[in-house]
Amino acid sequence: MDPLGQRGEWANWAGDQRCRPARVLAPRSRAELAEQVAAAAAAGERLSVTGSGHSFTEAAMTDATMLRLDALRGVLDADRESGLVRVGAGTVLAALNQELEGLGLALENLGDIDAQTVAGAISTGTHGTGARFGNISARVEGVEMVLADGSVRDLSAADDPDLLRAARIGIGALGAISAVTLRCLPAFTLRRVDSAHKLADVLDRFGELAAANDHFELFTFPYSDRALVLERNRTEEPPRPKGRAVAFLNDVVLENWALEALAAAGKAMPRAIPALARFAGLVATGGRNQDASHRIFVNRRDVRFTEMEYAVPRADGPTAVRRVIEWVRSNRYPVFFPIEVRVAAGDDADLSAAHERDTTYIAVHQYRRMKWRPYFEAVESIMNDYDGRPHWGKRHFQTAATLAPRYPRWDAFQRARDELDPSRAFTNEYAECVLGR
């Protein structure tokens, strides 16, 4: 879906964030990007860079000038020996994965959606799961950025370590990223095993399971006492992908069509949601697959929803999950969509949700056009008790005042912002809310 409709209205993937930019710029090269940015900023226009619209927040929204960098895509340079790959900022992750596979390379870790652009993914802190692995931005070795005066800064760990730590997760508030250098790995195969267990047992063994697997996560429906555990591990064996018929049954019929049908039934009959959730928990029995890493990391997502995700210290994850479930059940809140729990290693990006601490990510979802705010507000209140940090691309209600104490390098990011965008050309209401003016 093109995020920009025929009548000039931009909408995100979920369809619940919309704006009408005064004008849209779509440069065809870095030089054209620099020229357009300089002219717009000189005219006093505020600039907002949008990717593929997979944020649930207002991060890309603007009523001023929107920049679309779709044309700045593809692998620009690759060194197979070092694993360093320079890629255009507008490259969609799905396309990048295909190009890397052709080079015999792969990203170390990925989330379960590959529709984001590279710049959008790193700017919001997109992540996968794995106790020993960081988010995607943790593998960024360089960022090429066009500033408001049209100049180009090539930020690297060697020359600009402080600025790079800011730019790796910059929420679009520092400049227009035109290219990113990623450190990749030789292509590898993952074995994925999905299995159903008692939720209480999984949460009791949470730390053990996270440590025992390269990439561990769990899904549970708030009204179910079952959890679906996903374990992905590297293997030297060759890929053995599912056949087309089996893949269609699992990935399309069960994970999307059936989920859509059950969620729609719950929306029509809210009182039936607990029973539907228990049924879904019982039929989610799991399966196996072994394939190239990017095909194992990524899942098909057709059902539309909105989402909130928080990062808390690793050890606090199970308790926080239990409290969320307890709130849903005690308030009989009508939510059918599952809770997703993942883990990540700490990193050093200024605004990373996993900054300087090993992390549990807890994501809650609500089906499209169902009431989500009371649920998300309650979840946020719980996460606040654990010094929770929100995912920058997913719904939350924090402000710069409430966020600043949660990030040890908050002031360092603000200094980088003052240096790279002193006139605040790259801003919108969201940036002003979460970062300040």
Briefly characterize the structure.
By secondary structure, this protein is of the alpha+beta class. The chain has 14 helices and 20 strands. It has helices at residues 30-42, 93-102, 118-123, 161-167, 199-204, 206-212, 244-268, 273-283, 293-297, 317-330, 373-384, 400-403, 410-420, 429-435, and strands at 10-11, 18-19, 23-25, 47-50, 65-68, 75-79, 84-88, 105-106, 140-146, 152-156, 176-183, 185-186, 189-198, 215-220, 226-235, 286-292, 305-313, 339-344, 359-367, 389-390.
Can you walk me through this structure?
The structure is a single chain. The chain is an alpha+beta fold and about 425 residues long. It has two domains: about 110 residues, 2-Layer Sandwich (Uridine Diphospho-n-acetylenolpyruvylglucosamine Reductase, domain 3); about 200 residues, Vanillyl-alcohol Oxidase, Chain A, domain 3 (3-Layer(aba) Sandwich). Helices cover about 30% and strands about 25% of the residues. The strands form five sheets. An eight-stranded antiparallel β-sheet has the order 16-13-15-14-18-19-17-20, sandwiched between helices. The protein has a five-stranded antiparallel β-sheet with strand order 6-7-11-9-10. A three-stranded parallel β-sheet has the order 3-5-4, covered by helices on one side. β6 and β7 form a beta hairpin. The chain is globular, with a radius of gyration of 21 Å. The chain starts with 9 loop residues before the first strand and ends with a helix.
User: What do we call the CATH topology of the largest domain?
Assistant: Vanillyl-alcohol Oxidase, Chain A, domain 3
Q: Taking strands numbered 1, 2, ... along the chain, how are they ordered across the largest sheet?
A: 16-13-15-14-18-19-17-20
Overall shape: it is globular
Question: CATH top level of the largest domain?
Answer: Alpha Beta
Q: What is the residue-mean pLDDT, rounded to a whole number?
A: 95
Would you identify the CATH H-level superfamily of the largest domain?
Answer: FAD-linked oxidases, C-terminal domain
> Helical element count?
14
Rg, rounded, reads: 21 Å
Rounded to the nearest angstrom, the distance between the terminal CA atoms is: 33 Å
What is the count of β-strands? 20
> What proportion strand?
15-25%
Number of domains: 2
